[in-house]
Amino acid sequence: MDATYPTQTPATPVYRTNAEHERLTERESGVSQLIRYVVGLVRRNIWLIAIIVAVAIIAAVVLTMLQTPRYTAMSTLEIAEDTQQVLGEDLGAETTSYANWDIEMNLNTQLEILRSRALAERVAERLDLASNERFFNAMEAAALVELSEQQRADRTADMLRANFSVDLPTGTRIAELRYTSTDPGVSAMVVDAFASEFIQANLQRKFDSSAYARSFVAEQLEEARVRLENSERELNAYAREAGLIRTRDASAEGGNAAGSMTASSLLQLNTAANEAQAARIAAEARWNAERAQPLFSSQAVLASPTVQSLMQRRATLQAELDSARDRYLPDHPAVTRLRTELQATETSLNRAANEVRNSIRANYQASAAAEGDLRQQVNTLEGATLAEQDLSVRYNTLAREADTNRQIYDGLLQRYRALNAAAGITASNIAVVDRAEVPSSPSSPNLPRNVLLAMVLGLALAGAVVFLRDQMDDRLRIPEDVESKIGLPLLGVVPTAEDGNPVGALDDPKSPIAESYNALRTTLMHSTREGLPRLLLVTSAQASEGKTTTSYAIARSFARVGKNVLLIDADLRRPNVHKTADVPNKTGMSTLLVGEASLADVAVRSSYPGLTIVPAGPIPPSPAELLSSPRMAALLEQVEAEYDFVVIDSAPILGLADSTELAALVDGVALVVEANRGRGGQLKGALRRLRALNPVLVGAILTKYDASKGGSYSYYGYNYYRYESDENAPA
Questions:
Q1: What DSSP string describes 89-122?
Q2: What is the Cα–Cα distance from 701 to 570, expressed in whole angstroms?
Q3: What is the helix (H) or strand (E) element at residue 465, kind and residue range?
Q4: Distance CA 385, CA 249 (A)
Q5: Hey, CA dihedral for 318, 319, 324, 325, is it positive or negative?
Q6: How far is residue 474 from each of residues 444, 448, 463, 496, 676, measured CA to CA in Å?
């Protein structure tokens, strides 16, 4: 199973620092990771990108030089709102014939007319381009002398449309007309002809539509006049025959609504009767509410200024009487006077209140009498009106027909007059803003634009190639690939040795390789829940990835901090520990496992204090059987009890069973991966073999890493901080 970091108590400072580091690492944004990935990708493939971009730029320059220069002339037109209405209310005023929502459709229609074949044919006919040799030379086409006249006109129109373009910038009414050819004079001449013919075609359409409208309206006007005369003549004859007197209601629409005097009088009296009824109902309701309540509870009584004044006077006298009674005897003149005044005030108050109530009753009685009189007059006129209505049925039908004919006639007459007044006047809503000038420089080929486009396309192509190449290449190039491609935690990164001798670099504690293994030592001390694994197996997927050097460096690093370390060379096929540590290899693991020697006989003290080495010994015929024997398990139990830390250098995983047998017997397995060589698929296959025995995989070590080739940041190369001699150190 995958290794996890140990849980530590907050009281230990080193674990608080480690946890804080993990939190900061987890908070690193995805954007930063993406930028790091892109920068590394570019650095690794900078020459490939440069070659692709250079080829694209060279191709663009060559193609540009081979092209014939072409010139584009431009003319601009303003397409205003249409100011003329054929059947509108006012042809002289600038009124819009299109709704706001339809303006865009109108502009697009005008643009399509500019692109139409009919307009191209008008331009070709005006300039006589079908027989113009200069035009065909400018279009890089041969003269069409062998074709018929109609075929030459069709081919000329096709060439005009193919090289003509029109554009309408957003938010404007200014159309930009462009024509391109190899002759700048022809380009300017043709684009001006397009602008002029477009205006002429627009005016011709308006004139044709106006002439047709005048003829049509004249015919309709004559028919309407005859119908109006006949209908009015028939209406007057029927009125004389029936003896009806009709009036025209000026308030009605058009002032032509007819009505009888009797009906008008009935309408007025009925309206007055309804108003009198409403007034009577309101007065009756007020009187009923008034008489149903006590006199001095009425709002009308209390609202009377006279009543309010008397009530105030009564309150004042009552207060003075009460004060006099407290001061004098009941028969005192002052008490008698105040009592008399109070009684008189009470009498006046009652009289004033009754007058208010009587006025409400009188108002009600007057309203009822007025309503009765009006109702009587209405009843009298109703009979006369009913008799007249029987005679008005035919009259009303004839009157409506006459009114309809009059409205139609008036409308047509007004439009006919407007059309006659505007006859011959052709107001165009299209005007030339800028006429075309003969271009002084070619519009194509544009070398700077083509080079820039080639550069952009080259970068895009290079990016696609680099991305596909990176996706298809599963080699582990940078430290981030360890976790992303094989799913193991990264224990450390070991840079390449500058002189090609990594073992010699270990003797210099200030070298980048020595510093990297010191950092690896710190990581291993916290690689499992129990801390440092007592038995650590160091292996790799394939040979020559640096596992022997790594095993020796780890053992030396822990011996350096005072631990009793044993380094075992369990690679019984191609042993290298004795060469790296410079110890004899006459006896070793093979002789120990076959029972010909004991651990004390084969263990060799190295020249480095605290480090003991068990070399591989003679190569046996069947290493896998020896490593899976009970003697191997017993040996590991023995060395675990005698030493603080045991490092086992084993054979590669792929194709061999040696490392998989040992992985089940140790406390932790570290996988060594060579940068730019180890492949994700290969490593995943090796890990599947290891995980079949459920080992403790503490992580992976990336060796022989070159930051310049990996394309990552320089701190992976351990060059971001170097030692200085004392004389060069800053004060």
A1: S-SSS---SS-GGGHHHHHHHHHHHHTSHHHHHH
A2: 19
A3: helix 447-472
A4: 18
A5: positive
A6: 45, 39, 18, 21, 9
| 4 vs 317, residue with greater confidence | 317
3-class DSSP state of 257: strand
Cα–Cα distance between 444 and 419 in angstroms, integer? 51
Per-residue confidence band for 19, with pLDDT thresholds at 50, 70 and 90: low
Question: Would you state the pLDDT for residue 456?
Answer: 92
**Residue 716 pLDDT exceeds 60:** no
Query: pLDDT: is 444 or 566 the higher one?
Result: 566
Tokens matching residue 96:
């819009």
Tokens representing 81 are: 């709102």
pLDDT in tens, 678-707: 666 667 777 777 777 778 888 888 888 877
Rounded to whole angstroms, the Cα distance separating 10 from 7 reads 10
- Rounded to whole angstroms, the Cα distance separating 297 from 494 reads 109
The domain segmentation of the chain, as residue ranges, is 45-67+445-471, 70-271+372-443, 477-718
Share of the chain above pLDDT 90, in %: 3
Q: Is 699 left (phi over 0), alpha (psi -120 to 50) or beta?
A: left
- In whole angstroms, what is the distance from residue 528 CA to residue 525 CA? 8
Backbone angles phi and psi of 677, in degrees to 5? -130, -45
CATH topology of domain 477-718: Rossmann fold (3.40.50)
